[in-house]
Design goal:
It contains 16 helices and 18 strands. It has 520 residues and is of the alpha+beta class. The protein folds into two domains: 26-236 and 489-518, Periplasmic binding protein-like II (D-Maltodextrin-Binding Protein, domain 2); 260-483, Roll (Dipeptide-binding Protein, domain 3), CATH 3.10.105. α9 runs antiparallel to α11 (333-342).
């Protein structure tokens, strides 16, 4: 061997050892809330990120357009009362077990038995395995958005859960471990600190090499910490809860801005059981006193990107029953004073408790805005900072629920039923979504009609009537229609959050890690 050949060989080996394709890629993201890993208990944004990556569902939203497409299923048919799904026969759980219709039945029955999370979507549904690759759902009554609801029925590995748990439903096991078919498996999980996920080798659709090998989802990082980490190249995608000026600063420093168009809004929810807000005139007074224009200005990132748009009513623009986008809500102090005069309580005796979620600093500013607005009406208010866990506990009882609670709420299936039913139907009080504790026969009637209507026209009519009724009785101040904005490093590409033709139209699904690309 010549000296020249030896040198070339050494250089080639050195090049191979330093080539990026052999290095593990790690995606680092954060969320403010603790992460609920049990898919039957998932309800908020952090939970959704976990669920959509560790588990799969029979259908998923069509990317870039309306409707749903088969995912674990290959097709389905319905006569209105029953839905029959044919399943793929090539899907394996991360345990190595094959997925069958029995796992689908188990997953539904498990969700119903636990009665947590979004189980109310499946209250009146029964499932039967017709064969290993065919499952039939029977509905007790018509439910127009049933197919859409299936994006919230993650399929669980029945045999794996039972083999690792002494209980039928494996609550303890699934609170710390994954048991899905998803593109990523759970390496470790601490719901207060971090969940680490790794790419699955057995995913039925395959996971591209450019997708992150490992994902670290961290919880509860301070805004200042996230800003520093991204600036130093040690973090990749910040949560949507950063204050606007922090996102602005990161963008000026070269960070990219990712967006997820909302299927929900930012709400100031009024406890309708607690005086003086048990009087509709008092609620209408506060609704008309709120400075909607200033609220929208507070969420602007720059001239092109904002975290929301003006609300036109109780239902976000683009959904069934929404008012036109140009019919924006505006402050009207004259009407506010008229309604306050009609209130049965003396404004001088008011002391409105306005809460904000400690993990979302932006909410303190809205609390201060409301306090200023109410002061102009001669109404006293008190601002209280509540950690998310404490807030969720307090709202389980009306007497412990603040007068006003600030919340982002989204249609968890992309359908308005899952935005509005859980908030306003009298059968669903006492959750973080429903601190209004509303009980109104007409609202119930319109919500039920939206579920049972035979066609789109019927649903539009039902939700239009619902919109009008909610504006009439004002259980909520409708701050703005939301759009999530995420500051991100340039070492990751996320088409589902940057290209409308690739967007899912379902909150959290844009964080499907298998569809991301690590550039370094």
């Amino acid at each position: 061997m010549t000296r020249k050949t030896t040198l070339a060989t050494v250089l080639c080996v050195a090049s191979l050892l330093s080539t990026p394709i052999f290095a593990e890629t790690v995606l680092r993201i954060d969320e403010v809330a603790v992460g609920e890993l049990d898919p039957a208990k998932a309800s908020d944004y952090a939970d959704s990120i976990l669920m959509f990556n560790v588990y799969d569902t029979l259908v998923i939203p069509q990317q870039g357009g309306p409707g749903h497409v088969a995912h674990l299923a290959t097709s389905w048919e319905s006569d209105g009362a029953t839905y029959t799904f044919e399943l793929r026969d090539d899907v394996k759980f991360q345990s190595g077990n094959s997925m069958t219709a029995a796992d689908v039945v188990y997953s539904l029955e498990r969700m119903q038995a636990l009665g947590a999370g979004l189980s109310y979507l499946f209250t009146d549904v029964k499932a039967e395995a017709k064969s290993d690759t065919s499952v039939q759902f029977t509905l007790a009554q018509p439910y127009a958005p049933f197919v859409a609801s299936l994006v919230r029925l993650p399929i669980v590995d029945m045999a794996f859960v039972k083999a690792n748990s002494e209980s039928e439903w494996g609550e303890e096991f699934l609170s710390a471990n994954g048991a899905g078919t998803g593109a990523y498996g759970v390496k470790s999980h601490n719901p207060q600190e971090e969940t680490v996920m790794t790419k699955s080798d057995s995913y039925f659709l395959g996971v591209p090499d450019v997708a992150p090998d490992t994902v670290r989802l961290r919880y509860g990082l301070e805004a200042a910490t996230v800003r520093t980490l991204i600036s130093q190249g040690e973090h990749d995608i910040a949560s949507q809860w950063l204050p606007p000026e922090v996102i602005q600063a990161l963008a000026k420093d070269g960070a990219q801005l990712l967006t997820e168009s909302g299927t929900g809004a930012f709400y100031f929810k009024m406890n309708t059981t607690k005086a003086p807000l048990d009087d509709v005139n008092c609620r209408l007074a506060l609704s008309h006193a709120f400075d909607y224009g200033t609220a929208v200005q507070m969420i602007a990132i720059n001239d092109e990107v904002s975290a929301g748009s003006p609300a036109s009513g109780a239902i976000p623009v683009g959904m069934y029953g929404a008012n036109p986008a140009d019919a924006v809500m505006a402050r009207d102090m004259d009407k506010a004073k008229e309604y306050l005069d009609a209130c049965k309580y003396d404004a001088a005796d008011f002391n409105i408790e306005v809460s904000w979620i400690a993990e979302v600093p932006l909410e303190e500013r809205f609390a201060l805005l409301m306090q200023s607005n109410f002061t102009e009406l001669g109404i006293k208010s008190e601002i209280k900072k509540l950690p998310w866990a404490l807030f969720a506990e307090q709202v389980s009882k009306p007497e412990n629920t603040p007068h006003i609670s600030q919340l982002f709420v989204n249609a968890v299936t992309g359908d308005p039923d899952t935005l509005l039913y859980g908030m306003y139907h009298s059968s669903t009080p006492g959750t973080w979504q429903s601190p209004e504790y509303l009980s109104d026969a007409k609202v119930d009637e319109f919500l039920d009609a939206g579920r049972s209507a035979a066609d789109d026209a019927g649903r539009e009519e039902a939700y239009k009537a619902l919109n009008a009724r909610l504006m009439e009785i004002a259980p909520t101040i409708y701050g703005f229609d939301r759009q999530s904005v995420f500051a991100a490093s340039n070492r990751v590409k996320v088409p589902a959050l940057s290209d409308a033709s690739q967007a899912f139209g379902l909150d959290g699904m844009g964080f499907s890690f298998r569809l991301m690309e690590m550039t370094e």
